[in-house]
């Protein structure tokens, strides 16, 4: 992405049950440059977010229990 690209977003985790969580990804960005604009127009960005979210789900399910690692917010 170019230096003037504007973006914002949030990832939220909603507990549904003891062993079920809904993860919601919200992104707001403005593509810059021809390649990003074409990719966005044909949905490449949406596909990438869905693929990354699926890999995150698989990682969490594969590792099962919390690792006791860092907890907190990223500014």
Name the features.
alpha+beta; 75 residues; 2 strands; elongated; two-stranded antiparallel ribbon
Can you give the mean pLDDT? 84
Order of helices and strands, N to C? EEHH
Q: Count structural domains.
A: 1
If helices are DSSP runs of H or I spanning 4 or more residues, what is the number of helices? 2
What's the end-to-end separation, in Å?
Answer: 20 Å
Q: How helical, in percent, are the residues?
A: 25-40%
Q: What's the short version?
A:
With 75 residues, this protein is α+β, with helices and mostly antiparallel strands.
Q: What can you see in these coordinates?
A:
- This protein has 75 residues and is α+β, with helices and mostly antiparallel strands.
- It has one domain.
- It is built from two helices and two strands.
- Strands 1-2 form a two-stranded antiparallel sheet.
- The longest helix has 20 residues, at 44-63.
- The radius of gyration is 16 Å and the shape is elongated.
- The two termini are 20 Å apart.
- The mean pLDDT is 84.
Which helices and strands occur, and which strands form pairs?
Elements: E1 7-17, E2 20-29, H1 33-41, H2 44-63
Antiparallel strand pairs: 1-2
């Amino acid at each position: 992405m170019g230096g003037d690209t504007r973006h914002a977003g949030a990832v939220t985790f909603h507990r549904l049950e003891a062993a079920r969580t809904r993860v919601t990804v919200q992104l707001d960005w403005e593509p810059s440059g021809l390649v990003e604009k074409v990719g966005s127009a044909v949905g490449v960005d949406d596909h990438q977010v869905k693929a990354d979210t699926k890999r995150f789900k698989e990682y969490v399910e594969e590792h099962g229990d919390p690792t006791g690692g860092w907890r907190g917010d990223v500014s």
